[in-house]
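Attaching the record inline, Q. Sequence:
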Amino acid sequence: MPIAQNPLSVEVTLPREDVALFKVEGYLDVDTATEFQHHLANQLHHGRRHFLLDLSAVPFMDSSGMNIILRVYQEVRELPGSVHIISPTPAVQRILDLTGVSITVPVSRSAEEALGRVDGQPAAVPEQEDV
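Structure, as predicted:
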């Protein structure tokens, strides 16, 4: 009886009504990408516009995983919405950097930082500039 070498685990929580936080564990590759896509599509169907993808427990991601992230990024931008990657492992960060995905999809160190970006904090400018 063969056992899946690297099963994917996806835990979804809702920090807010329009935000879904995905805690992804395991390899995000051609064998598991469809399962991940189903989780994303389900939350999109339920009206979530902002997707926080915690990849801190993903030791490996191939082009299948990247394509799903880019696809959901394109879909939610039209809503408008956003996708944020949280704490990718060094191997995943390297792939994101080499392919330019990290330029398109923001990378945060924590869920709190990503939520701040959803709220527009990185682009926020102090209202009172006259000192």
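Confidence is low (pLDDT under 50) at residues 122-131. The radius of gyration is 15 Å.

More tomorrow.
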